[in-house]
Amino acid sequence: MTGSPKSDPALSGHRPGERPGQEKRAEPSLKGEETVPALRIGALSYCYPQGRLALEGVSFSVTPTECIAVLGPNGAGKSTLLLHLNGLLPDHPPRQPSIWVEGQPLLAGTLELVRQRVGLLFQDPDDQLISATVFEDVAFGPRQWGIAGPDLQALVARCLGLVGLPGFEEREPHRLSQGEKRRVCLAGVLACRPSVLVLDEPTSDLDPRGRREFKALLRSLPGAKVIATQDLELVVDLCSRVLILDQGRLVAEGPTLPLLSNEELMLAHGLERPHSLLHHHPHR
Amino acid sequence: MHLPGTESRRRTLLHRAWPRLKLAAALVIIAGTALLPRRPDALYLVPAAVLAGLWLVCRMPLLYTLRRLLVAQVFILGIAVLALLSPAGRPVFLATLAKSNLCILALLVLTWTTPFPELLQALRRLRLPPVMLTTLALMYRYLPVLAEEARRMERARASRTFSRKRRSGWQNLGAIIGHLFVRTADRAERIYLAMCARGWK
């Protein structure tokens, strides 16, 4: 296993009051009016073909430097919401847009543009790694946008370097560890040069070291991030803001620490107060 | 599941040869064999000798080869037996057996010496339709995933099986296969979404 590209800032002494996500939070409020949100969702609703309501009137926005978490119990609509951000749901884009990416409404005509700007990392790496070699897989997206030849090779090498797997081009996906598979998936998404990263349970099947390294990797990446997860420690470390979904509705939204410390709210929606907020951790 | 890959290979002269050349040579051998007369004939010795020579050069293990040929016999015999039904079908039956086995052997030598990704590249250069290439690539990628899934389900079933009745064994196998189909269909859907997310059209 290769090391993470940067040393893990989680290990290098952040006090609870000054976690990295929170320093960023001050920025948008200062110049919030001028910046176009990286992502804006307005009254998004979705019904499954079977008739079950999966999302109901969900609205929020994400600034270009923000990292937000989407929390909620299983079946709350998190994955459904993420599929919408990339235009994968509903099957045909609606006439009336409810999603804007960098000011561009998501419509049938802008679908490709939106898919390039929003990079989606799926929960199971085996669903996303489709090619016979790592190179082919990372090259999958850029090839669709017409990049080829030396440019493509340089881009793939750079993206593999970014995720800490330089020289993995000829490796075969089915021979990689779970953590390596995730990193290759991320490289494949980064190769499309997205401005918003959307991640579905990015640490769900990683061991503690894999989780720590992947967290450090995510922190090193610039741009807006939306993370749906059950890993509350990841949220505490990375995200400045939290959305809580339950039964397809946005039930709470706010800064990470106050929201996650609200035990009553967390328990009411199938969550719990993260361990790191229960006790004082002298090493943080 | 063992699939010949880019790693863990003994490298011989044939392994290092140009993939496109190997692919073209295999196609020539296969086409030539298919055009041989439909009766036992001394001409069959020509492709047989060529393949035997290549086999020796590439050091393909005997057991590896026989196991794969054995799997192919099911299909070959299924077709060849039909020839026996017609009058004077014996020469055709024998010719079908010989032709099919020689062709399979040619493909075995090709796949043993050429890692699948290189073969895909060669096929791409030969302008094979992209849909076919994608299908082949996906098959190669997901066979181990499916095999692993089947193994996990079989293990879970075995841990809860307390009788040795053959009938329930078959029933369980049927259930596993059915379940595997459903899971594969779900996975196919997710794979398609993941491909779309990266600009697939």
What characteristics describe this protein?
heterodimer, A: 284 residues, Rossmann fold, six-stranded mixed β-sheet, four-stranded antiparallel β-sheet, 12 helices, globular, disordered N terminus, B: 201 residues, mainly alpha
Would you kindly provide a written description of the structure presented here, covering whatever features stand out?
- The complex is a heterodimer of chains A (284) and B (201).
- By secondary structure, chain A is an alpha/beta fold.
- Chain A has a single domain (56-278), classed as P-loop containing nucleotide triphosphate hydrolases (Rossmann fold), CATH 3.40.50.
- Chain A has helices at residues 20-31, 78-85, 111-117, 125-128, 134-144, 149-162, 178-190, 208-220, 232-238, 256-261, 263-268, 275-278; strands at residues 39-47, 53-62, 67-71, 99-101, 104-105, 118-121, 196-200, 224-228, 241-246, 249-255.
- Chain A has a six-stranded mixed sheet with strand order 6-7-8-3-9-10, sandwiched between helices. A four-stranded antiparallel sheet of chain A has the order 2-1-4-5, covered by helices on one side.
- In chain A, helix 5 packs parallel to helix 7 and helix 6 crosses helix 7 (178-190).
- The longest helix of chain A has 14 residues, at 149-162.
- Chain A is globular.
- The model of chain A is unreliable at 1-32 (pLDDT under 50).
- With 201 residues, chain B is mainly alpha-helical.
- Chain B has two domains: 13-124, no CATH class; 129-197, no CATH class.
- Chain B contains eight helices and no strands.
- Chain B is globular and about 55 Å long.
- At the A-B interface, helix 3, helix 4 and helix 5 of A face helix 6, helix 7 and helix 8 of B.
